[in-house]
């Protein structure tokens, strides 16, 4: 009986992962307010009722997506810190920045971050998920890099500027203002 229950749990966990992956694409395309759980259920090939069994509300589904994206960012930064060409804070931060620039070339991940920041303005649960995600990232980057407060702030500020550069497609516009915004910033 126990093995049957374990099998059911793993099946439910597999479905949860499927819904989560499907929801990433749906929320990336239409944002928190523009995406329905019906759309997510249909794309995942399950009923809306089953989505609600796995995630009791749209808010919980979206915050799970946001948390999943923060986990992806953290994993990319961890790999970069390990693979950095040196141990100075500058070298570690540079490696992390490069990894992050590559990571946000996946538009879904970048869009989830942008939609989460927008929804955080008026949705307390989303705000808390974004706060917690950034709190963990800032503390990780601080510890892994050994950087100063200013270096850590600049690292995250450049990350936000990368979002802006990529979302506007500045590589398609050759103008003084785009060169100013993107000077020295690598994006893919």
Q: Could you list some keywords that capture this structure?
A:
single chain; mainly alpha; 9 helices; 188 residues; globular
Low-confidence stretches: none
Beta percentage is under 5%
Amino-to-carboxy terminus distance: 51 Å
Structural class: mainly alpha
The biggest beta sheet, please? none
Shape: globular
Q: Spell out the helices and strands N to C.
A: HHHHHHHHH
Level of helix content?
A: over 70%
How many extended strands?
0
Whole-number radius of gyration? 19 Å
The overall pLDDT average reads: 92
| Separate helix tally | 9
Explain this structure:
It is built from 9 helices and no strands. By secondary structure, it is mostly helical. The protein starts with a helix and ends in a 6-residue tail after the last helix. The model has no long low-confidence stretch (mean pLDDT 92).
